[in-house]
Write a structure and sequence with these properties.
Layout (H helix, E strand, L loop, with lengths): L3 H10 L18 E3 L5 H10 L1 H10 L3 E4 L1 H4 L4 E2 L15 E4 L7 E9 L13 E7 L1 E4 L6 E7 L2 E9 L2 E4 L7 H16 L1
Amino acid sequence: MGNLASISSSLKKTGASPIIVSEIPDEGFDGLVIPGVGSYSQAFKKVDEERSSISRLAKEGCPILGVCLGLQLMFNWSEEGNPGEEGLGFFKGVVKKLPVKRLPHIGWNSIELRKGSILLDGLENNCMMYFVHSYAPTDYDVNEAFAFTSCSGYRFPVVFEKRNIFGTQFHPEKSWLPGLRILENFINYCRR
């Protein structure tokens, strides 16, 4: 869904050789990126078609990165979706509409980093990332959240990690050098 060309281009800048697929192959790759721009329900349909393959890869230890809507699909469910549209459940919690007056939350925001993150290694606290969204994870496991930002005074998590599963609420592919560093960190993890 959505930002395939821009994320593919950014991954190439890190030295990766991305391949855009409509079905997940059984082998021949070192990591999976689930990008996303748009409607949860539309993205859910595509992810649901590949649910067993994505779940298998996660269990086998394949690195998986969800970006924006891709991250939201990694939670148990989203109030943006329709009843019965369960997310992948990699991270515990739900995705809800941001409780602020002005949506979408769009533009550059600084992120507050928590130590111990693979994705955020080498980044400075309060570096700027680019956001475009109206929903975000809530009711989450604090041990899985590694960065936070604020929108109109509301603080929420924007980076999640759990073993080989990673996610960002912002768009690293649109976040200049700090975003490229995140993608590079992910690619380096894939190469291990």
